[in-house]
Write a structure and sequence with these properties.
The protein is about 50% helix and about 15% strand. The chain has about 475 residues and is α/β, with parallel strands linked by helices. The strands form four sheets. It has a six-stranded parallel sheet, sandwiched between helices. Helix 4 packs across helix 10, helix 5 crosses helix 10 and helix 13 packs antiparallel against helix 17. It is elongated, with a radius of gyration of 25 Å. The protein starts with a strand and ends in a 12-residue tail after the last helix. The structure holds 5'-O-[(L-methionyl)-sulphamoyl]adenosine. 5'-O-[(L-methionyl)-sulphamoyl]adenosine binds next to strand 1, helix 1, helix 7 and strand 12.
Length: about 475
């Protein structure tokens, strides 16, 4: 029996183009899934868009477009970016999908009601549209949300609340026992310390806004004047996409999720609210939440006003998917914040890809093509333990280091054994050595699969066909 492996990305807000940070989440996710596939698991990879938001409506109106029409355009941009990055997702869920998403989102709501965890209450507070969450006075700096630089809205309304407070101990136990695993440990401690202050009930619906078209916002079951709070509806995507509440074939097969990949800014939603919802609805919890850091540029948050935003589309145009995936995998630490500039990117490209991997492949395959009669596919050996265990611990950069250590070792072997000389003095020994090099290069090709699927394929094919491939990574000046 094959093991199943279900991984999700966050679903992205479609108010603007995706930037490098979004590309990062998705690429890390893709690498993890491709590794599981290589290990023989039956995988399911979900991504999507989080569409029922005021910010999206505002962005649409600013462009003079109807929200739903605006969404289609943005979502098609997302898909283009994913294609460009070679993301091997199985499904793209949209939270405006009334067939796929709404029934399941409403079903989980009904389960919360049945558990006695939903109640109505008049409420007033400050709402940050950037966070899509209420924030408190003490979170503000100069009256503004420090993360978004915007003045929050004052809201006074009646809506439904979820009894999150009731799950304080239960959620803490699940996290402490490791039944709900949070990686890395620093994030586990962060959320445990947050939970230890006691969780507060959260507003879980909003009155339907007049400027929201039909088809936007999941109606609260039994009360059409209210729509579900966007985070409640969004988190549900992880099960609605599998057919929870509709056709449950995938749900039965793949839930609970093996991994939810998220950025550090959405930790509380995923490790407090979501597990509490699932406990309330009597649904099994996901196994692991992997929390990555943020990409900065030149030590600063990417922002339009600083002019340091890196557009993934532009990088893809110039360098291609393989190089972008490589950089994100190896040069950004998955657990901490990582920095990226155009300069650091180009430097890594030239050193590690053009001179490193590309040059090595060309050297070995030139020798092989000239001196060997035919190529051969090596026996498939197990993947090295340090590589698989690094990937299992989400230490993506360390796993990539394992591959680059091999690349370096191969380079050194060529320098030390000088096959181009040996072949002249001892043809037999020279051929044997070159053959060995091709076999080791093949293994490098195989290990590259999760990170750089196309390069992996090209290298393996070159070895089998005994043919030097076209230049893999032309130098950039
Ligand atoms: N819609 C919510 C998620 C709902 S999941 C049920 C959301 N969307 S988002 O578009 O704002 O962010 C999506 C992901 O991108 C988050 O994991 C976030 O952490 C990540 N990133 C956004 N900016 C980032 C960087 N600069 N660097 C790395 N990841 C970042 O939140």
């Amino acid at each position: 029996m094959k093991e199943t492996f279900y991984l999700t990305t966050p679903i992205f807000y479609p108010n603007a183009k995706l930037h490098m940070g979004h590309a990062y989440t998705t690429t890390l996710s893709d690498i993890i899934v491709r590794h599981r596939r290589l290990m023989g698991d039956e995988t399911y990879f979900l991504t999507g868009s989080d569409e029922n938001t005021q910010k999206m409506v505002d962005s649409a109106r600013k462009e003079g477009k109807e929200p739903l029409e605006f969404l289609d355009g943005i979502v098609s941009n997302f898909r283009t970016l994913y294609k460009g990055l070679d993301i091997s997702y199985d499904q793209f869920i949209r939270t405006t999908d009334q067939k796929r998403h709404w029934p399941g989102a409403q079903l989980i709501w009904k389960k919360l009601v049945e558990a006695g965890d939903i109640y109505k209450k008049a409420y007033e507070g400050l709402y940050c549209v950037g966070h899509e969450a209420f924030i408190t006075e003490k979170d503000l700096v100069d009256g503004k949300c420090p993360d978004h630089g915007t003045v929050p809205e004052f809201i006074k309304e009646e809506n439904y609340f979820f009894k999150l407070s009731r799950y304080t101990d239960a959620v803490r136990e699940k996290i402490e026992s490791g039944e709900l695993k949070i990686v890395p440990d620093t994030r586990k401690h962060e959320i445990l310390s947050f939970i230890s202050q006691g969780l507060e009930d959260v507003s879980f619906s909003r009155p339907r806004k007049v400027d929201w078209p039909q088809g936007l916002g999941v109606p609260v079951p039994g009360d059409d004047s209210q729509v579900m709070y966007v985070w409640c509806d969004a988190l549900a995507n992880y099960i609605t996409a599998l057919g929870f509440g509709t056709d449950e074939t995938l749900y039965k097969k793949f839930w609970p999720a093996n991994v939810h990949v998220i950025g550090k800014d959405i930790l509380r939603f995923h490790t407090a609210i979501w597990p509490a919802m699932l406990l309330s609805a009597n649904i099994p919890l996901p196994k692991t939440i992997f929390v990555h850091g943020f990409i900065t540029s030149g030590g600063k948050k990417m922002s339009k006003s600083l002019g340091n935003v890196i557009d993934p589309e532009e990088l893809l145009q110039e360098y291609g998917a393989e190089a972008v995936r490589y950089y994100l995998a190896r040069h950004i630490s998955p657990f901490e914040d990582g920095d990226m500039t155009r300069e650091s990117f180009k430097e890594a490209y030239n050193a590690d890809l053009a001179n490193g991997l590309g040059n090595l492949t060309a050297r070995i395959m030139r020798l092989a093509e000239t001196h060997l009669g035919a190529g051969a596919r090596p026996e498939v050996a197990d993947l090295p333990g340090e590589y698989t265990s690094a990937l299992e611990r989400f230490e993506i950069n360390k796993a990539a280091d394992v591959v680059w250590d091999r690349i370096q070792a191969l380079d050194q072997k060529i320098t030390e054994t000088a096959p181009f000389k040996l072949i002249k003095t001892d043809a037999e020994a020279g051929k044997k050595l070159i053959f060995e090099l091709t076999q080791e290069l093949y293994v490098v090709g195989r290990l590259l699969n999760p990170f750089m699927p196309e390069t992996s394929k090209k290298i393996k094919e070159a070895v089998i066909a005994n043919k030097k491939p076209e230049t893999l990574f032309p130098r950039k000046d």
